[in-house]
Amino acid sequence: AGPDPDVEQVRQRMSTIKHKILVLSGKGGVGKSTVTAQLAFGLARNEATQVGVLDIDICGPSIPKVMGLEGEQVHQSASGWSPVFVADNLGVMSASFLLPNPDEAIIWRGPKKNTLIKQFLKDVDWGELDYLVVDTPPGTSDEHLSISQYLATTHVDGVVIVTTPQEVALSDVRKEINFCRKVKLPVIGVIENMSGFVCPSCKNESQIFPPTTGGAAKMAADMAVPFLGRIPLDPRIGRACDEGKSYLDEIADSPAVVAYNSIIGQI
Ligand code: ADP
């Protein structure tokens, strides 16, 4: 067989993107989409930095909601699918933009998801991007296999893994790291989200999840991957997500914003 024409098209489309980062988590609900969105908002604070977000969580896309783009539709141009823009330098593509109604469920089997991911990679007209941040479904599923297979022909900077401090979540992270090693995706590092809670009135820090905050740092050290930082639980993060806004602009020196800024500096 000759070269796969799809692979060549993906390679060409991706050639105008400097850095590609995948965001993974072992479990749902650990804050993966929140982290993806806030990292993208954070990178795009510099107006000269062009940022794209690709949401390949086809059966549970939440990026449009947390980035304030619910109900938007994809537009087709001569050069492909146009992303939906949050700002001039921040564009988003998600499966939910293809649906007539945002509450519609997508129930697809592997091959169909694979086709859509391939289409996202070869047909979205991102233009020149400094960063493409890809939100993936929880776990290691068909979507991860397809994206790593198609991106294997282009340069991928690596994977950011989001977890909570809970032991069950951490054991899934070990699986994620092993998956990355198997498919040869470099691990940029691990983020511990929902890591402790600082009471706004008494300022004491409580651990919400047993065993203790800091488990992810230890696990990262054991697995020889970088630890990028801890983001505490902060109800204002949940609120910003519900409103589809950047949390980072609002409360400049909260511990969570300090953590995000430090993480953005490392990717
Ligand atoms: P996932 O993508 O892993 O399924 P989400 O990003 O949808 O998870 O986050 C799950 C919920 O937790 C959302 O309601 C989100 O607003 C909230 N959340 C995420 N991170 C934090 C945090 N650090 N503090 C408070 N709420 C958070």
Protein model, in words:
There is one protein chain. This protein has 267 residues and is an alpha/beta fold. It has one domain: P-loop containing nucleotide triphosphate hydrolases (Rossmann fold, 3-Layer(aba) Sandwich). Helix content is 35%, strand content 24%. It has nine helices and eleven strands. Strands 1, 2, 5, 6, 7, 8, 9, 10 and 11 form a nine-stranded mixed beta sheet that branches. Helix 4 packs parallel to helix 5. The longest helix is centred in the middle third of the chain and has 16 residues. The radius of gyration is 18 Å and the shape is globular. The model has no long low-confidence stretch (mean pLDDT 89). Adenosine-5'-diphosphate binds next to helix 2, strand 9, strand 11 and helix 8.
Q: TL;DR of this structure?
A:
This protein is an alpha/beta fold and 267 residues long. The chain contains nine helices and eleven strands. Strands 1, 2, 5, 6, 7, 8, 9, 10 and 11 form a nine-stranded mixed beta sheet that branches. A two-stranded antiparallel sheet has the order 3-4.
State the shape: globular
The top level CATH class name: Alpha Beta
Estimated share of beta-strand residues: 15-25%
Q: Count of helical segments?
A: 9
How far from one another are the termini? 38 Å
Helix content estimate? 25-40%
Average pLDDT score: 89
Q: Order of SSEs, N→C? A: HEHEHEEEEHEHEHEEHEHH
| Biggest sheet architecture | 9 strands, mixed
Tell me how many strands there are.
11
* Ligands and ions found: adenosine-5'-diphosphate
Any idea what the radius of gyration is? 18 Å
CATH topology: Rossmann fold
Total domains: 1
* Class derived from helix and strand content: alpha/beta
CATH architecture, by name, is: 3-Layer(aba) Sandwich
CATH superfamily grouping: P-loop containing nucleotide triphosphate hydrolases
Uncertain parts: none
